[in-house]
């Protein structure tokens, strides 16, 4: 019985550590549009890299975008293979507090279709 409780506590700790959303600044929601340069569709979260072209005073930059878990992506209409390198996407989300290139996506717009990820 002790082993079961210990395993449950360890799994809960891992789950809580995994969902460290406090590392994203939810007071600074923003939107950006760019071209996908890399796609990873794996547990625990799908991710993409996008390149955002320069606009006005903003220089070109890259974003590492943390999306939803693959099962949620599929349930919401973005199955594996639907995000392709070279596709143009718009992402709405929050910047990471310390990782300058990382953001957490709340929604993504691809092929004119808006997908809520949370």
Structural class based on helices, strands and sheet pairing = alpha+beta
Mean pLDDT over all positions: 88
Strand content is: 35-45%
How many strand elements?
A: 6
Query: How would a textbook summarize the main sheet?
Result: 5 strands, mixed, barrel
Helical proportion, percent range:
10-25%
H and E order: HEEEHEEE
**Low-confidence runs of at least 5 consecutive residues:** 10-14
Distance between the termini: 35 Å
Number of helices: 2
Shape: globular
Question: How big is the Rg?
Answer: 16 Å
Strand order of the largest sheet: 1-2-3-5-4
Offer a few descriptive terms.
118 residues; alpha+beta; five-stranded mixed β-barrel; 2 helices; 39% strand
Describe the overall structure:
The chain has 2 helices and 6 strands, in the order H-E-E-E-H-E-E-E. Residues 10-14 have low confidence and may be disordered. Helix content is 19%, strand content 39%. The longest helix is centred in the N-terminal third of the chain and has 17 residues, at 2-18. The N and C termini lie far apart (35 Å). It is globular, with a radius of gyration of 16 Å. The protein has 118 residues and is an alpha+beta fold. A 5-stranded mixed beta barrel has the order 1-2-3-5-4.
